[in-house]
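Long-time lurker. I teach an intro course on protein structure, and each term I like to show students one example going from raw sequence to a predicted 3D structure in token notation. This year I'd like something fresh instead of my usual example. Would anyone be willing to generate the tokens for the chain below so I can use it in lecture? Attribution to the forum is fine with me.
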Amino acid sequence: MLNTPSAVAVVDDGRPDGPRTPSASEAYWTVRGGPAVPRPTLAAGGFKHLLVPTLAAACLADRPWHIANAPRIEDRRLLSAMLRDLGAAVEDDGPRLTVDASGLTGTRIPARWSAGVHGGVYLLPALLAARGEVGSGRHGGCAIGGGAQGSRPLSHIAGILERFGATCEVSAEGFGATAPRSGLRGTRIDLADFAEPEPLTGTPTGPHYSGATKTALLCAVTARGTTVLDNPYPKPDALELARVLGEAGAQIEVSPARITVEGLGGPLGGADVVLPSDLMEVVTFIAWAVHLRRDLDLRLDRPDVVRSGLAPELERLDAMGVPLDWEGPRLRVGVPDRLRGTDVLAASHHVYSDAGPLFALMLLGAEGPSRLTDGVWENRFGYAEGLRAMGAVLDRVGNELRISPGELKPSPGPLVAGDLRAAATLLLAALGTGAPHLLYGVGHLARGYEDLPAKLTALGARVEVPGETGGTE
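-- Reply from a regular --
Happy to contribute to a lecture. Here you go:
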């Protein structure tokens, strides 16, 4: 059992989780909780973390790819713009995208787009494999990496490409790579080399592990010869990518310990892809239900993938006492009689790092103290100061956050989020205080949630978006 921590935040490693002052021009929402809606039903959007590498994989094909249940998020808009600029044809039909890369001619990703989202990094291996060379500026996304101002890493991308025979150059200004004249060649890679052992369990984890696995898959399918990937990243954004590549004509064998790819030495064929519901959106709305103590029904696409992909999260929710009932495509979330404190490990073989902030919020309502450890991103605690402003007792020591249960109260000032999941966490926290809050950093939410203000309004929240007549109440 953990000791109850003090009300003083402890940060012993110099990592930033303090407040940030918003600029006068920064976008914000005004958010406030509203009356309960009797057992609302909400449809979760498509899986962002699979959409992004799937759009890149379409560049490896000589026939169209059709992607259904594609969420209308900023990543989709910017990646579609990048693909069009590179010569691909992209048809946007609501929840369905069609990408025909047969006319792809470009090799450089414009910095004005790559800086907006992290997902453009997966175009680097795809363009290299398809065109023999690739270049880009810096790549954006949430500032939770270990570089300057939390910049996201590219060294692991270069490391993987070099194992396939490419020559790479990574600098502060961007990225460049060229393939051998004969094309990329199959190889063997232990993906644990691009990870670090998680201290408690010894399993591979870290910020490079997922991206290295997806990059290797995108290189391997059109390379010459066989590629063996040992110790692959185990979550569905990588394993479902392997399945999609197999449906497009690649020969892929997948096991927990190894992925073997027989390279085609040429382009993939066409594909019809149906994305499952977004796993982190599912966790977000479970967190809404738990934090506000309300019932909720979630309507899911491909619930089998959602349920298996969230197995570590579901195990922790069960330990907390959260009632979850699966009925075909519907997940029914109930109000727990009592919420138990627990320890949560966010690591590549455990709970998603993206889910960690949402667990921290839920555990503030537990009966006893809890502990959250993040073994992936060193700066994933940007939500802590906002929660403290609402009265939360959170002690941080390195990559561990100790959580004392307690009721939140209105913050004396605006809430400021520096990344996507911090914004979602602070938004849900504000809804539970009964008072209006200004939430800054809402631009991050457009990269991960489709129509979030409308979904929250359907749940009884009041969200005012400046510039939209009447807000979304």
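Some talking points for your students: The first helix runs from residue 48 to 57. The chain has a mean pLDDT of 91.
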